[in-house]
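Folds vary. Our protein:
___
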Amino acid sequence: MEEHIIKDELFRQIVDNTFEMTVLHTDYKVIYINETGARLLGGSKEELIGANVLDIFLDSSKEMIRERVRCALEEQKIGELIEQTIIALNGTQFEAELYCHPFEFEGKRAVLSVLRDISAKKDLERQLMNKIHEYSTPIVPLLDGISVIPLVGNIDEDKAQMLLDNLPTQIKALQDTQHIIIDFSGIYNLDELVIDFLFKIEAIMKMLGISPILTGIRPELAVRAVSIGRDLTNIRTESNVKKALTTLRGINQLY
């Protein structure tokens, strides 16, 4: 009997001090949470017992999590590893990997959920992608005072934000640049995200004292912009980089 108690206590200490947040819940109510989990959520084990497990997820994720729990309870289905944003008791958020497993506790169906804080890992990934986009989207000097930014591939939300964050810094490092040609001819997706990026990057250039010219804007992108109420007539454009250079050469010769 004493040996059994010792083993139970040893197991409890191991689970309490593991790197993962471990939660046992039934009917969406927490019936056990380890010390790591309580620490990550910023509370005590006592105040977290009885809490609704859905409360730590964003509203946009709750229905998906609810379905995962249902599948574990009713179909004995193991929830695959996924990444989610977790909300601590004080409202701060962190990113986590989690999976869930059907579990029987005191004769009742329950779910064992295990979460690992991956915020540091995700920050490193974002920094790496930031550098990749920084080096894959160079500002290329063409002539005195004239450079070009050749955009290629797809622009998703992350890439758009990285470009908006990185390009101003790169532009400030340039010497005597007065005009920048932003070439969209290599962009694959022609959607509202690209249109929004187009307007933002053009505005940023002007705020930095740079005269931007946008090239490679295909007709279907212009049509899409008009259809959603965005006016391209105030944006300086040329059909391609060659024509933009010809225009800028003519301007420079006037001075």
Observations:
- Strands lie at 21-26, 29-33, 79-87, 93-105, 108-117, 140-143, 146-153, 179-187, 211-215, 237-238.
- Residues 2 and 8 are 10 Å apart (CA to CA).
- The longest strand covers residues 93-105.
